[in-house]
Amino acid sequence: MVDAARQPLIEVKAYTEVEKVEGFVGNFKVTLRERAKYVRADRCNGCAACAKACPVEVPNYFEMNLAPRKAAYIPMSQSVPLIYNIDMDACIHCYKCVEACGALEAIDFSMEDKVIEEDIGAIVVATGFGHFDPTPMTEYGYGRYPNVITAMEMERLNNSAGATHGMVVRPSDNRRPQRLAIINCVGSRDKRYNSSCSNFCCMYAIKNALLLKQMNPDMDISIYYIDIRTPGKGYEEFYDRAREAGIKFIQGRPAEITEDPDSHQLFIKSEDITLGRVIEHEYDLVMLNQAAIPQPDQDHMSSVLNVAQSPGGWFMEYHPKLRPIDSPTDGIFFAGACQGPKDIPASVAQGSAAAARASRILHSDTWQIEPTVAVVWPDRCVSGKGQACGICERACPYGAIDYTKGLSAEVITAKCHGCGACVGECPHDSITQLHYTDAQVLAQIRTLLAVEPEKKILAFRCQWCSYGGADLAGTSHFEYSANERGLRVMCSARMDADLIYESYRLGAGAILYSGCHPQDCHYITGQVAGAKRAARLDKMFARMGMTPGRFRTEWISAAEGDKYARVINEMQATLDKIPESELQAEIDRLKPEMEKKLTKMNEIPGVEEAMIQVDFIVNEMQNKAVTV
Amino acid sequence: MSEEVNQPKYIGAMPEDEPRIGVYVCHCGSNIAGVIPPDQVVDFAGSLPGVVHAAETMYACADSGQRLIKEDIKKHGLNRVVVSACSVRMHEPTFRACVAEAGLNPFLMEMANIREQCTWAHGHDREGALEKAKDLTAAAVAKATFLTPLDMINVPVTKKALVIGGGVAGINAALDLAEQKIPVVLVEKEPTIGGVMAQLNKTFPTMDCSI
Fold first, then answer.
1. How far apart are CA A27 and CA A121, in angstroms?
2. Which residue from A141, A289, A382, B103 could staple onto A387, CB 3.0 to 4.6 Å apart?
């Protein structure tokens, strides 16, 4: 901590929040809000005179509210930076602190939040984790029984700098406990709250048990556990040490804690799996080893950073094995528990790994980004012909399109992220996206629907989420109908209505229109544009009398392999329910409607020419299918 | 900033050259070949218009697989490559680099995902998986027919890092970056850095203090 403050190249901005992240790798523009401390950093010397003079006491969150602090405070004596803070919610404006500060004149009640903009090349996200609040688990009585405490409360009781100067006492009577129980997996590995394992708590329980045993060798300590998980280096040996020290390990998840209301003694009722029977033991103090959960503001940070969350709410890495540090956005990296619960050695290692990943970029003068950007055909843009339009400019989430009436629109390449929203929205087909041109995507559609199109489920997927979801379905061997045919664009915003019409014109049985969940979109609001278009299409197809379910919109994250498989299987079930002749009749009936929508498709540069060539491939596929 | 960015060349809608496509169908050991016979996909792909060469390979990503592709590009004068193998999330960079080493523009390579999105998802429908693998390969061939060479876009880099969160991971990342002479802004929402670690007493497995 102190090293970070001492390092001249690190500017520590505490009491500061990230409000906005814009831009792209090498060129992020970050808006920070430095909250007003009402104490001037350039004058405060950390002498504590203000805190001594302050008459207001409030619970200190840092001490898990076990000890008070003043309204003029630092959370702990080793705070970095060592600058006092006036808590305006608690302050009674008596100005005693101003008096106490005297000639330093560090206290300034006129201070306001400061909004700062920073130009940044790469970002390391290390926002950590939160603690599960066991209050809803009424069977353990946390909040009702004073002597049931959480792990973090134990931590502050046990800490020499903490509320009791390291003396562990029962909150009900300040007596030192003789019999202590630690219950593991409180809120973790529990389908009611968090089904995953919190990773470090087994070791954490053993650590606390050993520490308490060292202080008081006569203390009777039991750890209730489901499984003991100690896979780290030196961890199993640590567990052995605890057993040798006489700590009892009881396999079983306690069903209930009851309390004698007079003595506040606690009784744990549990199954002991080893003994094969139900047991009940008395304790002076019970520590609940609470689950690690995502930060309370993880959802908010997820949308500020435009990064997706895995099931359970942790930030989602680019690839769970091969790129565990990278976010899907180039230039943003994860370190520590924000990506999933981690112990200290793993968090430190990830911090270094994230620094190494980021420094590849930060040591370069330039960085390469994919050229899958949008390009305008100037001779097709109606604006250049004097017509008012500007739809592309409004569709772009990045302000990357320069629209001036009378001039054809222009894409500012450095700002374009290549989502294809403008391509999908342009009603005059005047924009295309490199590497995902209309000719290229149509060529894929035609080949995927070359043989028995009525049996096929054509799945349009975005590169970042639903393509990843389909990958995960396969990696997890979640089986789904092999009639599915997938194709990839960068974002659901690129899924032009023409592509859907063409697919139905060719006789597609069903179409899945899929992308990310709105808060996960890689392109800020790309998904919103895609979702609006999908809703329009859905209504239109319903009016045309298309059987419900033949067009389906689903938002599937890269973590939802099970959902991808389920959706495809449900679509297959929908198709199976429609008698063959009825489906064919519907396809034939809707074909002219689709053709009407597509009269201008062949005007798109390259499409007509390309489709002649594609039809050679399609014919070959159809001939082969007949001979088989 | 924008003057430092190379603009993509205005690219015609259609490639100027006649496609000479090479198709590589990967066994991936038994991951693909255990479900479908890759040689049947090769036979199918080999007859598609535009394809001048089709071959199977045990591991396309292995050195030997990549060498085969690179040699074939020269031997058969390939100007497009289709790799029918795994996910683009896994190996698109690998095969782009591979064709680039043989002098081809990296964007003239297209992948068909016949592993994650085919054999692994249809292990109990071998016939369905085979038909799908053929279709996915054909779609990649069709797209490859119209691929045009593209240049990566170079953007300038601001040599400054932002670390969000002053816990043990964030502090360590900030220190590692600063020691490499990279300026860092370390943002912490609480009044002090330290995170959860600063609240802990001793820490396992060494039982040393946490601050």
1. 5
2. A382
Task: Write down the pTM of the prediction.
Answer: 0.85
CB B122 within 8 A of CB B128: yes
**In a mutagenesis test of the A interface, which of B52, B168, B208 is the best target, namely the one with the most A β-carbons within 10 Å?**
B168
CB contact under 8 Å between B121 and A207, yes or no, is no
Coil, strand or helix at B179: coil
**CATH 3.50.50.60 given to domain A130-293:** yes
Window 136-175 of B: residues touching A by CB (8 A cutoff) are: 136, 138-143, 145-148, 150-175
To the nearest whole angstrom, how far is the Cα of A276 from the nearest Cα of chain B? Answer: 32
* Phi/psi of residue A457, nearest 5 degrees: -110, 105
Structure-derived torsion over alpha carbons of residues A420, A421, A422, A427, reported in degrees to the nearest 10: 110
Gap between the Cα atoms of A588 and B145, Å rounded: 30
User: Which residue type occupies A277?
Assistant: R
CB contact under 8 A, A124 and B161: yes
What confidence score (pLDDT) does residue B1 get?
40
Please provide the DSSP assignment of A333-382 as one string.
Answer: EE-GGGGS---HHHHHHHHHHHHHHHHHHHT-SEEEE----EEE-TTT-G
Domain boundaries, chain A: 130-293, 374-433, 438-627
| Residue B55 bridge partners (DSSP) | B24
Distance from CA of A161 to the nearest CA of B (A): 9
Query: What letters, b where the CB count within 10 A reaches 16 and e where it falls short, cover B58-69?
Result: eebbeeebbebb
> Under CATH, which number does the domain A438-627 receive?
3.40.50
Whether residues B175 and A350 touch (CB distance < 8 A) is answered with no
The span from the CA of B26 to the CA of B82, in Å, is 11
Is A374-433 in CATH node 3.30.70.20? yes
Q: Which tokens sit at A594?
A: 């689709």
For A440, nearest residue in chain B (alpha carbons): B143
Q: Which residue do the tokens 């090349």 mark? A: A121
Q: Which of B12, B121, B148 sits opposite A474 (nearest CB)?
A: B121
Tell if the CB–CB gap between B191 and A439 is shorter than 8 Å.
Answer: no
Residues 6+ apart with CB under 8 A from A176: A167, A168, A169, A170, A216
DSSP string, A124-190: EE---EEE---TT-GGGTBTTBTTEEEHHHHHHHH-TTSTTTT----TTT-PPPSEEEEEEEESSSB
Q: Is the ipTM of this complex over 0.90?
A: no
Kindly report whether the peptide bond that precedes residue A81 is cis, defined as omega within 30 degrees of 0: yes
Phi-psi group of A403: left, alpha or beta (phi > 0 → left; psi -120 to 50 → alpha; rest → beta): beta
Residue B63 or A319, more confident: B63
Q: A544-564 pLDDT, tens per residue?
A: 999 999 999 999 999 899 999
Residue B148's pLDDT band (boundaries 50, 70, 90)? Answer: very high
Q: Are A18 and A295 in contact (CB under 8 A)?
A: no
Give the number of residues written for chain B: 211
The domains found in chain B, sorted by start residue, are 16-145 (3.40.50), 161-209 (no CATH)
